[in-house]
Write a structure and sequence with these properties.
Radius of gyration: 16 Å
CATH architecture: 3-Layer(aba) Sandwich
Number of strands: 5
Oligomer: single chain
Shape: globular
Number of domains: 1
Bound molecules: thymidine-5'-diphosphate
Strand content: 5-15%
Length: about 210
């Protein structure tokens, strides 16, 4: 089973992925955790270009194809083998991030992005996508605090530095895209305590596992 987590900056995806991984392992599942961009060796090189503050001269189209290249490599080397081995694989971001950030955020056509992603994922769309939804004002404040604490503002801060308008478009884009793909998405209010959020996620994941 392939599960992805999506949402704007600072929704607490990492914490929830850890909680879910522990829970699934305790329930006897074999679980791999991965992320985008940077889930493969080549992807880690692409991640450096994509997230560094110095990449201000990157064009929208170049950014798009680097994310797609990262994904194609990630699917081939990491996701497909895990799914075929019968594992649960959880990815922190995946194809929906491209549709929402490059589409609803940057203004590229979401329908075209869906088609380009079909090539990159080669049949491996997620079985379940957890969207953590939060007001961008709250999310960004959390993400900035984390980057400052980890001293990662320069290396990883390119998206956090975008305007609040950009992040608001991304948030709305996620909600629109989730409504168009209801069979796969669950939307969770991320302005709650980590325990409250996890209780909701756990319920949805167990439901999905049982229906398989
Ligand atoms: P990351 O540090 O992983 O952010 P987060 O901690 O919020 O997950 O950085 C990934 C950034 O890249 C994030 O701001 C969203 C952006 N992104 C895209 O614009 N398109 C994509 O296809 C992906 C995978 C990420």
């Amino acid at each position: 089973m392939f599960i992805t987590f999506e949402g704007i900056e600072g929704t607490g995806k990492t914490t929830q992925i850890k909680l879910l991984t522990n829970f699934l392992k305790e329930s006897g599942h074999e679980v791999d955790v991965t992320l985008e961009p940077g889930g493969s060796r080549i992807g880690r090189e692409l991640r450096k270009i994509l997230l560094n503050m110095d990449s201000t001269d990157i064009t929208g189209e170049c950014e798009l194809f680097l994310y797609l290249a990262d994904r194609a490599q990630h699917v081939g080397q990491v996701i497909k083998p895990a799914v075929e081995a019968g594992k649960v694989i959880i990815s922190d971001r995946f194809a929906d991030s491209t549709i929402v950030y490059q589409g609803y955020g940057r203004g590229l056509d979401p329908k075209l992005l869906r088609e380009l992603n079909d090539v990159a994922v080669s049949g491996h769309w997620p079985d379940l996508t957890v969207l953590l939804d939060i007001d961008p004002e709250i999310g960004l404040k959390r993400a900035m605090t984390r980057n400052l604490q980890d001293n990662k503002m320069q290396e990883e801060g390119r998206f956090e530095a975008e305007s609040i308008d950009f992040h608001s478009r991304v948030r709305e884009g996620y909600l629109t895209w989730a409504a168009l793909n209801q069979e796969r998405f669950v939307v969770i209010n991320a302005d709650q305590t980590p325990d409250e959020i996890f209780t909701e996620i756990k319920e949805k994941v167990v439901e999905r596992l049982q229906s398989r």
